[in-house]
Design brief:
Distance between the termini: 145 Å
Structural class: mainly alpha
Number of helices: 9
Largest sheet: none
Shape: elongated
Radius of gyration: 33 Å
Number of strands: 0
Strand content: under 5%
Number of domains: 1
Helix content: over 70%
Length: 295
């Protein structure tokens, strides 16, 4: 019996020594191909999320610029700027599973929701859609009052639609994880490969098998862990998107637009007041020429 066991072990050692290298190469190539596909697809999700947030940045700025430039009604303009900023933070909170809207309370007063507006936003289930709905109502009222023409109305509505599309794209990434069977298959194959690897290395690497297997395991499991992290780009993890910094940038930009629009309004009011007062208080004799006076 010992002789048969020894013969079996010798045969296995002989097979591993002669054919183990070819089998290891085949398994290594297969594993590398599978991991490359997974990491590429996960990074595509991460990059798509960043592209969508880039669109949110651009459309929010443009919407704020249009409102600050075209809408002369102070209340409607400020309402659009407040709810555009709130949309950004509400989107971030929804993608992270946080519905408190706590960050909005810390914003500058120019772009911070009023208490009544914040209370209304907290009562609805989908807060980003609610904020865009309020922006749409303000734009509609501005058009009805004659503050903007048809071209300006379409431009504002296009920005609102683009923000809604970006929100839908982010939610699609969030709610569409990788199929479990796909992920489990790759992880199972990686585990079997790492279990097979020591038997293929021990015949040629001897005691170096231990550090070599450790390095290979670190590489394989590290790539899998990295793919799992970038698969969901909206988390607070280290490899997640810097949504807090992006939202802060947008709020600063819209705050500056609010300041500039307020300054322009004050200057326009002051100029109109000065012109009106000059016209009213101008003496009648100033309108007469010297000829009329001599006569």
């Amino acid at each position: 019996m010992d002789k048969n066991a020894k013969t079996g072990s010798d045969w296995l050692a002989w097979k591993l020594k002669d054919d183990g290298g070819d089998v290891g190469k085949l398994l290594s190539f297969t594993l590398v191909l599978m991991l490359a596909m997974r990491t590429t697809q996960c990074y595509s999700r991460w990059w798509e999320g960043r592209t969508l947030w880039g669109s949110i940045v651009n459309r929010s700025r443009d919407l704020g610029r249009q409102a600050a430039t075209w809408i002369c009604d102070v209340h409607l303009r400020e309402c659009i700027l407040r709810h555009t900023t709130a949309f950004v933070y509400a989107t971030k909170d929804r993608l992270r599973g946080e519905e408190s809207l706590a960050d909005i309370k810390e914003l500058p007063k120019e772009v911070r929701l009023l208490e009544a507006e914040l209370a209304d936003a907290k009562q609805v289930e989908h807060k980003p859609v609610h904020t865009l709905q309020v922006v749409g109502r303000c734009v509609s009222q501005a058009a009805g009052a004659g503050y903007i023409n048809g071209f300006q109305l379409r431009a504002l509505d296009q920005n609102i639609t683009s923000l809604m599309d970006a929100l839908g794209g982010c939610e699609r990434i969030l709610k569409t994880p990788f199929p479990l069977s796909y992920v489990s298959h790759i992880r199972t194959f990686a585990f079997l490969y790492l279990m097979w690897l020591p038997f293929t290395l021990v015949m040629i690497a001897d005691w170096l098998t231990i550090p070599l297997v450790f390095i290979a395991s670190l590489a394989v499991m590290g790539l899998e862990h990295l793919a799992a992290e970038v698969e969901q780009p909206f988390t607070r993890e280290f490899n997640g998107l810097a949504l807090d910094a992006i939202c802060e940038t947008i709020s600063k930009n819209l705050t500056e637009l609010a300041h500039s629009s307020q300054t322009s309004t004050h200057l326009q009011d002051a100029t109109t007041s000065i012109s009106a007062s000059s016209f009213v208080t101008r003496p009648l004799s100033d309108n007469l020429d010297n000829t009329s006076i001599n006569v």
